[in-house]
Specification:
With 567 residues, the chain is an alpha/beta fold. It has 18 helices and 27 strands. The protein has two domains: 430 residues, ANL, N-terminal domain (Rossmann fold, 3-Layer(aba) Sandwich), CATH 3.40.50.12780; 101 residues, 2-Layer Sandwich (GMP Synthetase, Chain A, domain 3), CATH 3.30.300.30. The longest helix is centred in the N-terminal third of the chain and has 18 residues. It binds adenosine-5'-monophosphate-propyl ester (PRX). The site of adenosine-5'-monophosphate-propyl ester has 22 residues, from helix 10, strand 14, strand 21 and strand 22.
């Protein structure tokens, strides 16, 4: 029997107070995610239950019980507090998927500070803009990443502490640097948990938009109410499960469902910190008898390419429930997984801003391959007419995905950017920025984004950020960045570049430009191709029409070009 039971019955009279009751939370009480994921689970008698099975490169492995993660979070929390980190200070986590990333996250929340996880793959410029925007006080990192922090620290007056979790004493620590080792520190048995309340800020995740710099999505401790229940009903996490979320906590999936959801439910989860390979993934599932697996379409398409033979080399019979998020999950992938794993991937749809899964295929509900499923109980999801912004009743008609505001884990604002936050609402609907239709059985079908943001392998890339990086190169006069189709990543980044006089449009220059922007962008945002052009299509007001270039790449109708400069 699945946790959700009947979706239809759950919808009837649904109220989030159901989740509050399960968590023994009364409105007005204190609520702290760090405490809920550790101390409460220990008090429930699960102190010795395994919380984390971690495997790293070269076969390194560690196992932690719930009591271990409680102590580790306390120890990191105390260390930060002793450094002078106060509630609401921003503390950045800039690490690979090592245990300190997960345990540090909880420690930060326990002292009421705000966790700011960032991908360790980010280059120094990407790191800089996000730390500057958040006025981050401290960063926790590894030896292998500290050189990027050193390059930018002089431009970050707010950054008081650079904490290295694997300092080996070989080279002297530099200005503002501190060594901290979980293995060497005295475990802190009791830590006074900061009395955070429902609206106290908890996590700051950065996401890309079409224009402007990345936006810091601010979440609060009350988000737990929805993270807990969605993990329980959508991912169907049950007491004896071994759960694997493949997402990096630099991304919201890796915190909402790679830390908070499973641990607030007292579930054992495993983490694999190594690059992608089908054989390594299957070996991991087999070895740990993974039962619930939450992954992403690009990874699933890569597994499809690796073929069925490699599946047959492993015993994956422990798998009980599979789910996916981040980009369109094509029907072929759902059908393929049914064939090779004996169960379909259940698509789920949500955003950094929503904090939790909004639309999903639930255990026990009929899966229509290619559809994202139906809104979670308590979530009012509609398709709005793009002009009137009124809900469309007609089945199959494409419009904007919008939600009625007010679910527990909705972002509270964009950090230092309230105007952009307010612009997400129309007629009291939250606009997701995506387009879809609803069929006559209430299933949502994703169509595409309603803006120019590129979703490559599940990662959102702002064309503006890539264009800005390109423009800093002396050879580039103008640029336009769009997506182009790709078999595995669905879409990848392509740049059109107009050169300044005196530069030759050749392969050597392309390499130079690529190397130049590599330092500024995350590897995820790097263009796969640069095409030199004589001119770029523009509107009469001089704005570059990415839409035309996009249509050209995707072989689509070009549509209305009446505002083109030079028809
Ligand atoms: O465009 C949608 C796409 O990813 C966007 C949100 O990205 P991000 O904030 O990075 O968070 C992703 C993980 C929660 C959405 O606006 N997206 C997400 N899930 C799906 C999807 N597109 C199609 N199908 C999905 N299931």
């Amino acid at each position: 029997m699945s946790n959700i039971g009947s979706y239809e019955e759950r919808i009837e009279g649904f109220d989030w107070s159901l989740s509050e009751k399960e968590l023994e939370y009364t409105p007005g009480d204190r609520i702290n995610i760090g405490w809920y994921c550790t101390d409460r689970i220990c008090r429930m008698g699960k102190a010795d239950k395994t919380a984390l099975i971690w495997e790293g490169l070269g076969g390194a492995s560690r196992t932690y019980t719930f009591n271990d993660i409680r102590l580790a979070a306390n120890t990191i929390g105390r260390f930060l507090r002793d450094l002078g980190i106060a509630d609401q200070d921003r503390v950045c986590l800039f690490m690979d998927k090592i245990p300190e990333l997960y345990l540090g996250f909880l420690g930060i929340l326990k002292i009421g500070a705000i966790a700011q996880p960032l991908f360790s793959a980010f280059g120094d410029e990407s790191l800089l803009v996000r730390l500057e925007n958040a006025e981050t006080s401290a960063i926790i990192t590894q030896r292998k990443h500290v050189s990027k922090v050193r390059k930018i620290r002089d431009r970050l007056p707010h950054l008081k502490h650079i904490i290295i979790v694997d300092y080996d004493g070989r080279k002297p620590l530099q200005e503002r640097e501190q060594a901290f080792s979980l293995d060497d520190a005295d475990p802190v048995e009791e830590l006074e948990v900061f009395p955070t309340e429902a609206e106290s800020p908890s996590v700051l995740h950065y996401t890309s938009g079409t224009t402007g710099m990345p936006k810091g999505v601010k979440h609060v401790h009350y988000s737990l109410i929805a993270q807990y229940l969605t993990a329980k009903w959508v991912l169907d996490l049950q007491d004896d499960d071994i759960y694997w979320c493949t997402a990096d906590p630099g991304w919201v999936t890796g915190t909402s469902y790679g830390i908070i959801g499973p641990w607030s439910l007292g579930i054992t989860q495993c983490v694999l910190d190594c690059g992608f390979s089908a054989a390594a993934w299957y070996r991991f599932i087999e070895k740990h008898r993974v039962t619930v697996w939450y992954s992403a379409p690009t990874a699933i398409r890569s597994l499809m390419r690796a073929g069925e033979e490699v599946v047959k080399d492993h015993d994956l019979s422990g798998l009980r429930h599979l789910a996916s998020v981040g980009e369109p999950l094509n029907s072929e992938a759902v059908i393929w997984s049914g064939k090779v794993f004996g169960k379909p991937f259940h698509d789920t749809y949500w955003q950094t801003e929503t904090g939790v899964i909004m639309i999903a295929n639930y255990p026990g509900m009929k899966v229509k391959p290619g559809s994202m499923g139906k809104p979670f109980p308590g979530i009012t999801g509609v398709i709005l007419d793009p002009v009137s912004h009124e809900p469309i009743a007609e089945a199959g008609k494409i419009g904007l995905i919008a939600f009625k505001p007010g679910w527990p884990s909705m972002m509270r604002t964009y950090w230092n950017n309230e105007a952009t936050y307010q612009a997400k609402f129309v007629n009291n609907w939250y606009l997701s920025g995506d387009r879809a239709s609803i069929d006559n059985e209430g299933y949502f079908w994703f169509v595409g984004r309603d803006d120019d943001v590129i979703n490559t392998g599940g990662h959102l890339v702002s064309p503006f950020e890539v264009e800005s990086a390109l423009l800093e190169h002396e050879a580039v006069a103008e640029s336009a960045v769009v997506s182009k189709p790709d078999e595995v990543n669905m879409e990848v980044v392509k740049a059109f570049v107009m050169l300044n006089p005196g530069f030759e449009p050749d392969a050597e220059l392309e390499l130079k430009i690529m190397n130049f922007i590599r330092k500024k962008l995350s590897p995820l945002a790097m263009p796969q191709e640069i095409e030199y052009v004589e001119s770029l299509p523009k509107t009469r007001s001089g704005k570059i029409m990415r839409r035309l270039l996009h249509a050209q790449e995707w072989g689509e109708e070009i549509g209305d070009t009446s505002t083109l400069e030079d028809e």
